[in-house]
């Protein structure tokens, strides 16, 4: 009897291990596949950093690679749902779930194992969203900030206004065969004293040590609040290395470390800090609701993952030969998909009022226990 008990226990472990392996393998394959598809679509959108903002291809590829963790963090709950739904359905179609019941594994025991797995995934998702994703996004923003306009030459096109640099506009009337330009207009408002430059001819010198626009035969109009100065020139050098890209360089809320967000909300309220600066980002009262929303997204939103897990477990209540199976499968898919939509949509209203915050924090927990009790009663009655 003792030997039989040990054998049965070993078989249960083997069966669960095989199920976990199949689910994890499918989860990883789906995550990488969908992640690459979404990442590719995002990469096309980010190509403006090259075509309009003057960054080089090296900066572009480094930036989109650093944004990959953000994409993975967003799609993981959906991938988990698809993986669990697919594997459970496949196991039922191949009669493999019957092996669990044959070896004395109850449906509630099976569901508990899946919930435990979902809790581990929830913890991983919290770490992913609160540390790794903001870290790589912040490094990407710093990469743009520290890069120069190393693709500036390719942006210069005849008959087109170039605004790759904030406060600087360049217009070229004609590009000549010898790579020089004719009829050049420059409006420079990047400094206290703005200036307008017109040149009949010009040429860009672009190498590692020098990046200047050599201008010939023209006029410079310097403007300030009190006077206007005009002078003509035969040749001047317009230094392009003095200018930075028009890309937004201040970190966004979703790119900031979690400890900075906590300091801005919690500690800022305790010590009555009106504003807090971090890498040119100003944290003040006007954006504290957005910061709290970001903290909910990182630390609380993953709680929907166990809800997805227990909802998916309703697939094991009825066998495939039961007339209710197909109907239950469709209902579970729609409810779980709707839950994912709710988890995304409700976040934006979570800080609109104290009542909204209370409902956002309490409803997922209450829903989980209601669904779990409903599942427990369902498997007892089948």
Taking the sheet with the most strands, its summary is: 6 strands, antiparallel
Secondary-structure class: alpha+beta
In whole angstroms, how far apart are the ends? Answer: 30 Å
The geometry reads as elongated
Order of helices and strands, N to C? HHHHHHHEEEEEEHEEHHHH
Range of helix content? 55-70%
Record the strand order, biggest sheet: 1-2-3-4-5-6
What is the β-strand count? 8
Number of helices: 12
Average of the residue pLDDT scores: 81
Strand fraction: 15-25%
If you had to describe this structure to a student in words, what would you say it looks like?
Helix 4 (68-93) runs antiparallel to helix 11, helix 6 crosses helix 9 (288-299) and helix 6 packs antiparallel against helix 10. With 382 residues, this protein is of the alpha+beta class. It is built from 12 helices and 8 strands. Helices cover 57% and strands 18% of the residues. The chain is elongated, with a radius of gyration of 30 Å. A 6-stranded antiparallel β-sheet has the order 1-2-3-4-5-6. Residues 1-5 and 270-275 have low confidence and may be disordered. The protein has helices at residues 2-45, 48-51, 57-66, 68-93, 97-102, 107-146, 152-155, 258-270, 288-299, 304-312, 325-345, 354-381, and strands at 160-165, 168-175, 181-188, 194-206, 211-223, 228-239, 275-278, 281-284. The protein starts with a helix and ends with a helix. A hairpin with a 4-residue loop joins strand 4 and strand 5.
């Amino acid at each position: 009897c003792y030997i039989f008990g040990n054998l049965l226990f070993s078989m249960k472990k083997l069966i669960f291990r095989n199920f976990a392996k199949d689910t994890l393998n499918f989860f990883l394959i789906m995550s990488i596949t969908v992640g690459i598809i979404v990442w590719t679509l995002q990469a096309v959108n980010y190509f403006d950093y090259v075509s309009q903002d003057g960054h080089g291809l090296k900066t572009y590829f480094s930036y989109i690679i650093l944004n990959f963790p953000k994409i993975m963090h967003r799609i993981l709950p959906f991938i988990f749902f698809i993986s669990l739904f697919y594997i459970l359905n496949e196991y039922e179609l191949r009669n493999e779930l019957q092996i669990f019941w044959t070896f004395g594994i109850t449906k509630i025991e099976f569901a508990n194992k899946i919930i435990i797995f979902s809790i581990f995934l929830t913890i991983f998702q919290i770490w992913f969203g609160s540390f790794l994703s903001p870290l790589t996004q912040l490094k990407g923003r710093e990469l743009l900030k520290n890069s120069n306009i190393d693709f500036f030459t390719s942006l210069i096109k005849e008959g087109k206004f170039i605004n790759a640099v904030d406060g600087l506009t360049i217009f070229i009337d004609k590009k000549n065969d010898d790579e020089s330009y004719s009829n050049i207009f420059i409006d420079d408002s990047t400094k206290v004293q703005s200036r307008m430059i017109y040149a009949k001819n010009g040429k860009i010198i672009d190498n590692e040590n020098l990046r200047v626009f050599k201008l010939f035969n023209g006029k410079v109009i310097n403007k300030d609040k009190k006077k206007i100065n005009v002078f003509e020139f035969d040749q001047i050098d317009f230094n392009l290395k003095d200018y930075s890209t028009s890309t937004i360089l201040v970190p966004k809320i979703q790119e900031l470390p979690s400890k900075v967000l906590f300091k801005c909300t919690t500690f800022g309220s305790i010590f009555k800090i009106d504003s807090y600066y971090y890498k040119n980002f100003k944290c003040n009262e006007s954006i504290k609701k957005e910061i709290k929303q970001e903290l909910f997204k990182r630390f609380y939103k993953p709680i929907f993952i166990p809800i997805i897990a227990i909802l998916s477990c309703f697939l094991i209540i009825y066998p495939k030969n039961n007339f209710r199976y197909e109907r239950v499968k469709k209902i579970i898919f729609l409810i779980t998909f709707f839950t994912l939509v709710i988890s995304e949509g409700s976040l934006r209203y979570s800080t609109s009022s104290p009542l909204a915050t209370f409902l956002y924090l309490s409803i997922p927990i209450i829903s989980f226990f209601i669904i779990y009790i409903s599942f427990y009663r369902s498997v007892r009655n089948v």
